[in-house]
């Protein structure tokens, strides 16, 4: 049994007590479900309705959930969720890629994300990431530790972008590393830079003796990704 299951069961028990018959579905997703034992458990919760009183009750449990290494759950009314798939295609797409149903029907069994919504969101995020890297490097003043921090902190977002691109290309794999590599290969990126990024997702720091070795290749990969999404054929 996965190590996160007991915490998930306890969360479901809390939510059942809070929402009773208004609880519709609970799914677990994210890095912990993907196998990262250090990550907090993240869950999407769909309910019939949510009130200020419900929020206050959840707030009283927040510290308890944190002690169990459970992140604050994403709680949405079911009708609001169904009308927001086009607004958050990347976020929901990552949940769709790998999630575990804990209670109720799978909320992703029926609704789907339009590919054009996904492509547009990918373009926005990729170009924003590129601007962030360039600006961050300038702000670093070229200091090795600052460049290392920039690469390390931005690497998970880059890996997530590659998974979104993989989904845009039709990938259905739930494996985190495999989806990242599929996205990279679909736009012609080499496994080397992607391998470094995957490693950075799990390591808190990187050696700072030669950060210039990694940054140029990383920046070039994001530039290539931006060009590919610009010319993406639907």
If you had to describe this structure to a student in words, what would you say it looks like?
This protein is of the alpha+beta class and 234 residues long. A four-stranded mixed beta sheet has the order 3-2-1-4. The relative contact order is 0.11. The model has no long low-confidence stretch (mean pLDDT 91). The N and C termini lie far apart (40 Å). It is 58% helix and 9% strand. It contains nine helices and four strands; from the N terminus they run H-E-E-H-E-H-H-E-H-H-H-H-H. Strand 2, helix 2 (52-67) and strand 3 (74-77) form a beta-alpha-beta unit. The chain has two domains: 5-103, Beta Polymerase, domain 2; 115-230, Four Helix Bundle (Hemerythrin (Met), subunit A). The chain has helices at residues 5-19, 52-67, 78-82, 89-97, 115-140, 144-168, 176-186, 191-202, 215-230, and strands at residues 23-29, 42-47, 74-77, 99-103. Helix 5 (115-140) packs antiparallel against helix 6 and helix 6 (144-168) runs parallel beside helix 9.
Layout of helices and strands:
Blueprint (H helix, E strand, L loop, with lengths): L4 H15 L3 E7 L12 E6 L4 H16 L6 E4 H5 L6 H9 L1 E5 L11 H26 L3 H25 L7 H11 L4 H12 L12 H16 L4
Parallel strand pairs: 2-3
Antiparallel strand pairs: 1-2, 1-4
Which architecture of the largest domain does the CATH hierarchy give at level 2? Up-down Bundle
Task: Spell out the helices and strands N to C.
Answer: HEEHEHHEHHHHH
Per the CATH scheme, the topology name of the largest domain is: Four Helix Bundle (Hemerythrin (Met), subunit A)
The CATH class of the largest domain, by name, is Mainly Alpha
């Amino acid at each position: 049994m996965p190590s996160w299951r007991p915490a998930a069961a306890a969360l479901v028990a809390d939510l059942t007590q809070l929402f009773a018959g208004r609880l519709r579905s609970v799914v677990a997703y994210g890095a912990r479900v993907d196998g990262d034992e250090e990550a907090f458990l993240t869950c999407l919760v769909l309910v019939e309705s949510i009130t200020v009183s419900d929020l206050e009750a959840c707030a009283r449990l927040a510290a308890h959930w944190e002690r169990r290494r459970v992140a604050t759950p994403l709680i949405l009314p079911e009708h609001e969720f169904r009308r927001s798939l086009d607004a958050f295609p990347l976020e929901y797409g990552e949940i769709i890629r790998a999630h575990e149903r804990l209670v109720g029907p799978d909320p992703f069994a029926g609704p789907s994300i339009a590919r054009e919504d996904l492509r547009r969101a990918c373009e926005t995020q990729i170009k924003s990431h590129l601007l962030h890297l360039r600006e961050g490097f300038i702000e670093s003043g070229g200091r090795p530790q600052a460049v290392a921090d920039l690469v390390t902190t931005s690497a998970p977002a880059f890996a997530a972008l590659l998974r979104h691109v993989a989904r845009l290309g039709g990938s259905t794999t739930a494996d985190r590393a495999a989806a990242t590599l599929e996205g990279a290969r679909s736009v012609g990126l080499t496994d080397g830079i992607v391998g470094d990024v995957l490693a950075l997702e799990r390591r808190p720091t990187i050696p700072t003796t030669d950060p210039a070795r990694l940054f140029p290749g990383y920046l070039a990969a994001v530039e290539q990704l931006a060009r590919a999404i610009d010319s993406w054929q639907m």
